[in-house]
Amino acid sequence: MNMSVTLPSGLLKIWEQVRSALDVVRPETSAAARLPAPVAKKPDVDLVALCETLLARKEENAGIKLVGQILDTYQSFSEDDRCRFLNALAERFGPDPARLDRAILAYQASPDDLAFRELQAAVEPRRQRLIRLLNFVPNGTFKIVQMRADAIRLKSKLPKFSQLDSDFAHIFRSWFNRGFLVLKQVDWSSPAQVLAKIIQYEAVHDIKDWSDLQSRIDPEDRRCFAFFHPQMPEEPLIFIEVALTLEIPATIESVLTGKSQVIRANEARTAVFYSISNCNIGLRGIPFGNFLIKQVVEVLRRELPNLDTFVTLSPLPGFAGWLARERKASAEGIISPEEARSLQTLDFEGWSKTPETSEAVRPLLVSAAARFLLQAKDENGLPADPVQRFHMSNGARLNRINWLGDVSGRGLKQAHGFMVNYLYDLKAIEANQEAIAVNGTIDVNPAVRDQLKVAKPPRVKAS
Amino acid sequence: MNMSVTLPSGLLKIWEQVRSALDVVRPETSAAARLPAPVAKKPDVDLVALCETLLARKEENAGIKLVGQILDTYQSFSEDDRCRFLNALAERFGPDPARLDRAILAYQASPDDLAFRELQAAVEPRRQRLIRLLNFVPNGTFKIVQMRADAIRLKSKLPKFSQLDSDFAHIFRSWFNRGFLVLKQVDWSSPAQVLAKIIQYEAVHDIKDWSDLQSRIDPEDRRCFAFFHPQMPEEPLIFIEVALTLEIPATIESVLTGKSQVIRANEARTAVFYSISNCNIGLRGIPFGNFLIKQVVEVLRRELPNLDTFVTLSPLPGFAGWLARERKASAEGIISPEEARSLQTLDFEGWSKTPETSEAVRPLLVSAAARFLLQAKDENGLPADPVQRFHMSNGARLNRINWLGDVSGRGLKQAHGFMVNYLYDLKAIEANQEAIAVNGTIDVNPAVRDQLKVAKPPRVKAS
Amino acid sequence: MNMSVTLPSGLLKIWEQVRSALDVVRPETSAAARLPAPVAKKPDVDLVALCETLLARKEENAGIKLVGQILDTYQSFSEDDRCRFLNALAERFGPDPARLDRAILAYQASPDDLAFRELQAAVEPRRQRLIRLLNFVPNGTFKIVQMRADAIRLKSKLPKFSQLDSDFAHIFRSWFNRGFLVLKQVDWSSPAQVLAKIIQYEAVHDIKDWSDLQSRIDPEDRRCFAFFHPQMPEEPLIFIEVALTLEIPATIESVLTGKSQVIRANEARTAVFYSISNCNIGLRGIPFGNFLIKQVVEVLRRELPNLDTFVTLSPLPGFAGWLARERKASAEGIISPEEARSLQTLDFEGWSKTPETSEAVRPLLVSAAARFLLQAKDENGLPADPVQRFHMSNGARLNRINWLGDVSGRGLKQAHGFMVNYLYDLKAIEANQEAIAVNGTIDVNPAVRDQLKVAKPPRVKAS
Amino acid sequence: MNMSVTLPSGLLKIWEQVRSALDVVRPETSAAARLPAPVAKKPDVDLVALCETLLARKEENAGIKLVGQILDTYQSFSEDDRCRFLNALAERFGPDPARLDRAILAYQASPDDLAFRELQAAVEPRRQRLIRLLNFVPNGTFKIVQMRADAIRLKSKLPKFSQLDSDFAHIFRSWFNRGFLVLKQVDWSSPAQVLAKIIQYEAVHDIKDWSDLQSRIDPEDRRCFAFFHPQMPEEPLIFIEVALTLEIPATIESVLTGKSQVIRANEARTAVFYSISNCNIGLRGIPFGNFLIKQVVEVLRRELPNLDTFVTLSPLPGFAGWLARERKASAEGIISPEEARSLQTLDFEGWSKTPETSEAVRPLLVSAAARFLLQAKDENGLPADPVQRFHMSNGARLNRINWLGDVSGRGLKQAHGFMVNYLYDLKAIEANQEAIAVNGTIDVNPAVRDQLKVAKPPRVKAS
Hints:
Four copies of one chain form a homotetramer. Chain A is α+β, with helices and mostly antiparallel strands. Chain A has 21 helices and eight strands. The first copy, chain A, has helices spanning 10-21, 31-34, 47-56, 64-76, 79-92, 97-109, 113-123, 126-134, 140-153, 161-175, 192-201, 210-217, 252-256, 289-303, 319-328, 337-342, 355-375, 386-393, 409-415, 429-439, 446-450, and strands at residues 182-185, 222-228, 238-245, 270-278, 309-312, 314-315, 397-402, 419-423. Chain A has a five-stranded mixed sheet with strand order 1-2-3-4-5, sandwiched between helices. Chain A has a three-stranded antiparallel sheet with strand order 6-8-7. In chain A, helix 3 (47-56) runs antiparallel to helix 4 (64-76) and helix 8 crosses helix 10 (161-175). Chains in contact: A-B, A-C, B-D, C-D. At the A-B interface, helix 6, helix 7, helix 10, helix 14 and helix 20 of A face helix 6, helix 7, helix 10, helix 14 and helix 20 of B.
């Protein structure tokens, strides 16, 4: 990950992994598609030359027209033209090597303040100033974010992608600093264009249509919150969906479809975070998610003092893959050869649909899930599952494993149907964050630990 | 100027000079004074240690409480404590020299992408990340700006001020990027707290009280515009006052007090920019002014299509000082010894109040003003007067010299009463900016050139 | 019409007729359906008694709780209970007959100011004060409007409906006075709940789904405007859909589906009002439509100075019915027996689909449409077609008859496919209004008059 | 009182009396004074004729231009012209007597629905429809309110004032129905034009200037709330000032000036309503005040759950006058002749300033105040003091008499320095309202009853 050099941030990496584990990335609506009238093509404009001219201007306000021209031209470009320009941006707008060499020598000769500042200036790629200048026009921010989205999409065709991307990310971290983000509730009175993006960007549990959307944000016992940037008020950056319930739910179905019984918001005891989705890929790697959950907890507590439990209902996307590998692994693994054999049931499609097969495999499978959650680690000693890693690093407690919590195709394929509740206990969050950061220990509900051992299977009566 | 290393920007420097020439700096309202309840003193907190702890946290969201604590503690500090902390910030939160040396050596050994990125990271002072982290809480931005304002005020007690200030400025340039600023009209329906700041910050022609303020923003033929940052909606960053008139005014008195005849806005032909003031000294050096004028011209043109003249009524703060030096200078100067003698009239207080003395000196003094405006240059070959330099670099035309345009104490003392109209002709601005930037030539109304020669004095009848 | 006694308003009546001609009325979403949690049933509350208690309270603020109780109870009522209550409202909350008789006698004895005021007071039905009191709680206005909507729906079961309705209407005319309505543009950034109502209430050309809606309000060359009341910000009262085009369109198909070629708004010359729909039936008879068109014309002119033509594309809902009657009528009618025979073509379904049949009947049918528009009158001497009557009374000009302008099932059935353009010429509107009001004359494009005569049929080649 | 016929409302009358007792009425800022450019005089326009033309128009939207003309002309009128027009309005725009007579006869002949509705229509003065039509233009509402303000001011020159005023009031009651009013907090971020009106309209304790205003609305322990109408967002209708304190304050001085010790809002236990002022005299008699207090209590409770006491600090404006009359009255009065003699102290100016005189008279004076509050009644058996009457009828409890609570000139003159705390106990309000409405009994703190008896004077040591 490119940002890790200057801004070490474990969560960031984790979040990235969550995204790819959940298969989040979707085709962006190209900005052009939203525009009512097509931008005339400007294929013959030498965009690189325009950028050089802009950088040459000493008076910053002298370039506003130029900036508009540059952004319009880029937007009128075909995919190929964009790729060519992004390559030029990556290769020709870095730092000036000669100036940098001189600055290094001068600093080595005399490491004083002046030499240090020149070194600082010389090391900054020219494209950073260029990007800042491109932001001088209305809507510039969004267009620059889309430029990075293009770069990420065209990554394989951009040999120097990582340099380029690192500069975008460096600037976006400053522009999208937590202090500038605005938390807004998204509900049925929100602008349609924002809601259309919620439908588009939902990454965990698909929203089928507007009526499905309404059922998630309009009832009294549903909430949705998103971060926005003041310059991009129509563009949610990240959003979270919340169900207000009496008890901690064990299945996603009960959250998404059990809507016959809407409850009064002020009677709810539990807030369930059942979906969190990043939006624009142009902002990939800029960390919003960890702030979002805590702030939403604060907002809900103030509005609904009766809430005393804040919990997720989360997928376990790494489990099935891990288990498959374990079953093939040698005798020394977490899963014994004997257990591996018992788990062959899983290879029969439909095992989850009849009580005979599912209840038979249940004790062992629950134990396997518990072992995965408690014992499977990544290279840094953190939980192997990306969603778990995200919530644990964020200070949550591993609270409950839910058998057949998600029996959708994806749920069965990725996690043999398991879902997990991670609990956000405000009093414990800080300590939990500290503990996992310092020595990798996680906060676990004892009941989950008990599940490590294979329980005796219940007797299933023949029907 | 500290910013000039990384972001060459002539206007910036000029604007700074305008500020000091106009004696703009005023005591900030300390944020504490506005707070309703006093913050409890926290003198024993080791703020430096808290900052180190914050920087040590890997998870950015883990530090929000800490950030609040740091900012509150700083705000509860006495002047001395603040000074001590700012010195620590300047001295102990720079880059890590050992890491930087290693990074330099690695880069010299193999200047590849990885080495470069490590060099980039190593050269960034640790306080930059610290400042960005401090922005994670509500109101953080304003508090950080105030921290820089403190540093500027305490400059003389901060040996390493320039390093510190350069980092603040670097970050503020990104945060207060033109694309994030919002232009708003300020009028009698604006929030009182914003208006209170207009009164406080007005730097060119004092606003005496609320009724004086109302006379400047409420009548149909008056306008005021300001830039705001979304995170600091109560805090104008820079503002400009406009009078809508039939003709180009020659005296500030006619603008400020000739209010018996309010005219209909849509009958006005001329928009007069008669006052432009920067606000928070914590944002010194961040360029807003040049953008402001052009955007206000756009806004006014759209609202009032009958406007065809956009012009300033500006002070000439450098004139009297320059003339005094010229009068003492050798024979080779712009003012001849003979002329210098004739100008002794100026040494008698009250020369401007009787026609006999004033009309006698008028032809020579007008010529001297024309020479000052056309011939006096600074070390860069730009106009010597800072206000003139600002508007010329901004693309305006030197349009008219106004005799006894400002007979207030300050007007007479700084400029022997002269005021100047600089004309913003939208069709000429870009070319003018280019011309002054490339070869230092300025756009001058021929009538002003004609004034270089001393006109024959009119005969003044004895009364 | 019940309102005509106190507030004579021809347009009102006309608009009512437009509504029924267009078959506008749709099932209201009952407010209950939108509420997330069901209101507990309160079947045993004696609502009439509660209302009497409320009216007995002298201090108006003493009744706020009571008001809430009354409105909640009503809302929890079944259809039958509501009907029973509305009947009581109509029968038991009129004026006090004894008091009225006394007041009349006193006034006849001595028609002084005091007697007159008592007469005024005595003639006011008690339910008027009741309705005003019910408005004291948040959301009261909407609930009262829904109460009237119930009454209109249950009309046939309410023997004294007209008394009741007249009081609702009297109060709503005051509450929804033109001066309190707010015109807002409805676009893709409007709240979803408002847009959902646009879909629901569209009465002229159905909106199929959200994507169809977006195509009507989001493109640069489409506009939608609605009136709102400040107390019911989610509830459009009436709305109009506008297409910006180069030429006056002749078919609705070109407006609704010819979207491949979106044009730039500032290149449009023509604004086409192609759909206008009233919303809540509880506000039936309160006139908004006539104000709406003129205000939208003003707004569009200011935004897009290039627009020079404001025109409708309207249905002709009365034509087919009128023609059927004429064809059966005696020789003295507008349609001659011979012509009637020629028009038998219309009795064959599908006549419009083959050029042979349609072109053969075209000259006569166009002439018949012209005669309908110019010669068919209602009992007041006004145009017989309700939509025509609305626009003519509103000051428009009958501009063009469009052959096969609407070939949808409804278009063919109601108007044999004709659509009409009525032109709003700002310079002519007032005079036109005066002319039709005073002597019933209408403003007609001469080209339409020319169509009164049957043109020679063009020769249609056999294919 | 003109409204009492149709809408019996005791509080209304009481509030009127409060206003005059407190000497509330101030010169309105005439709307003209606020306008930037003078309206050209239109003295020759026959406004009455214009109004007749408007009423003659059948199509309501045909008159919009006319409405603008009528309101502009009126506004350009001199005082005399206005007076003439208002007289015409009062005399010539009543009901049509002939029509009314016919309607009465028809109704007497056959009191059916049709006859009743015609009677209803005939009894409505024509000026009611006129006033409703005048509201069709932007800003119409405010201009009509100002028209009534003129009428009230010119009352003595309008022989038929009461007829005219009753129609204005009838319509305003509908337009300014509680359900349409919006409660807003007024603070230092409110628009300056709203704050300027707070300064202007404050009727109880003068606001000296903007800095005095800031001290009342900006500190954390101060609040101000006002009702607004959506059509007049710059115009507060009524406002209330609140101090958040630890204890119930006994003197106004401690509220207005004891600002050295601002407390944290969430530490406050008591909300003190120390000033409530009606604003525009054009809205005289439209009841807002009683709703305001209760709604503010609700808002404060939700924001600050620690508040448990809601209390006023009120003047006692009727006391001094009553006492003066009592002292002159015969032996049978509430004050005995002997007591009257003892009270001669009050005739010496400055009695309150030395402990010797003030402490000597204190026991008797406190008793007199208690007797006034508990025994002095108006003609309806309600408390004689108008402020007391307002709060008692509004459901408050008479809680405490404060000796030398207001030692300002007005406080001493009107109330011999007494102030009173009325307590709003949410649990008791409804019952209290009922009790005073039904049998005139008021809710009194026993401690106040104890003060009816003259306490033994404390011994004051000679200094």
